[in-house]
DNA sequence: CAAATTTATTAACATAGGTGAATGAGGATA
DNA sequence: TATCCTCATTCACCTATGTTAATAAATTTG
């Protein structure tokens, strides 16, 4: 069931989703379950789906020159995740997406995504709003990554995303913040 | 004249722009000239416009806790620039946008932007593609900012954006890369 | 053109965060 | 219950980048 997604769309748009839209969604997307540690996308491969997490969690990472994993995004219930390059631009994925727990998600492939957006202007608006919010968020994230110290970034992150702090292992949060797990330990010790 | 923008749309979409679309554009946007160092958006204020640079250049920056400027984006001819939070979400801008030279730009306000997107599906697609490319670009930028050393980031930047290296002052490029101008000097000395 | 301002370079020193290694705490698996 | 793993913590040491300051070069302005 895509109840969660429908609520998310209604919350985002501030208006109800019609039965026809629900029907389109049902036709154009499908649900799938994944074990812990399954890959939803893989660096260098096509990324065919965009995932809306219904239950569980996952994260995407970029492998740097030294072969270390660097967290780009984390997603729990009510979040979309994909490899933006791979999915939107039909190029090989630059990131890998991996589940952290057994996870259920709604999947939409690129063709159906385009159909969905064409099928009803509200879908189009919904996804444009998501992208716009994403841009705004990433600008702020970049700005703070390059301009604030690790301690300030951690403080803000834990205030803004307490649910992530609870659900996601610390070494991934460290990576997301751009530091090593040892440094995050040091900071946490100092902070509390 | 919005010739530059029309070409940009055609290049992005891979198909021609119809006379009606050109008419919509003319009605819904306008051209404006700015002196050097004029502000196109200001932290804390509403950001009413999205700017397509026809001639000149500008950059956006975020003021951190210490009051230092940190470069988020740089834009020269054929680039769009705005404060994503302020413009798309009608919240106060988180960044300031400033011209680096006398600059001519096409301006579109939010209402007209929405009208434009509704007026023809190709506009809608064009702007969605821009947003998608923006997301892909920012994911990669974040990933590299947190995972590669400053020297590697500078090397890649100068290879990928030689035209920026020529046009934009070094201290802004340093800031964009997340380092101080002194560090960039040191890196440049080592590199060449 | 001269003065004033902005930008780039260099150097000596300081520090946030990285590195590598050891230790312990949970969970999972058998 | 014993054996793995994975994850978090701590410590000693290291290094990339920041800081401050001085100087030079380039650019703007009157």
Describe this structure in words.
The structure is a homodimer of 192-residue chains. By secondary structure, chain A is of the alpha+beta class. Chain A contains 9 helices and 8 strands. In chain A, strands 1-8-3-6 form a 4-stranded antiparallel beta sheet. Chain A has a 4-stranded antiparallel beta sheet with strand order 2-7-4-5. In chain A, strand 4 (58-63) and strand 5 form a beta hairpin. Chain A starts with a helix and ends with a helix. The relative contact order of chain A is 0.15. The model of chain A has no long low-confidence stretch (mean pLDDT 95). The A-B interface holds A 62, 64-65, 68, 70, 72-73, 83-85, 88-89, 94-95, 117-118, 121, 124, 127-129, 131-136, 138-148, 152, 175-178 and B 62, 64-65, 68, 70, 72-73, 83-85, 88-89, 94-95, 117-118, 121, 124, 127-129, 131-136, 138-148, 152, 175-178. Chain A binds a DNA duplex (30 and 30 nucleotides) through residues 149-151, 169-171, 179-189.
């Amino acid at each position: 069931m895509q109840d969660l997604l429908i609520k998310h769309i209604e919350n985002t748009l501030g208006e109800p989703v019609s039965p026809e839209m629900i029907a389109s969604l049902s036709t154009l997307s499908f649900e799938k379950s994944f074990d812990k540690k399954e890959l939803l996308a893989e660096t260098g491969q096509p990324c065919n789906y965009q995932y809306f997490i219904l239950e569980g969690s996952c994260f995407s990472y970029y492998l740097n020159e030294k072969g270390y994993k660097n967290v780009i995004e984390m997603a729990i219930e009510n979040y979309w995740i994909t490899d933006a390059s791979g999915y939107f631009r039909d190029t090989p994925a630059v990131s890998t997406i991996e589940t952290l727990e057994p996870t259920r998600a709604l999947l939409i492939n690129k063709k159906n995504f385009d159909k969905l957006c064409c099928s009803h202007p509200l879908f189009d608006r919904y996804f444009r709003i998501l992208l716009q919010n994403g841009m705004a968020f990433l600008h702020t994230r970049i700005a703070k990554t390059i301009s604030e110290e690790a301690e300030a970034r951690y403080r803000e992150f834990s205030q803004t995303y307490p649910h992530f702090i609870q659900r996601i292992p610390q070494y991934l949060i460290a990576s997301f913040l751009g530091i090593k797990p040892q440094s995050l330990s040091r900071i946490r010790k100092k902070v509390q």
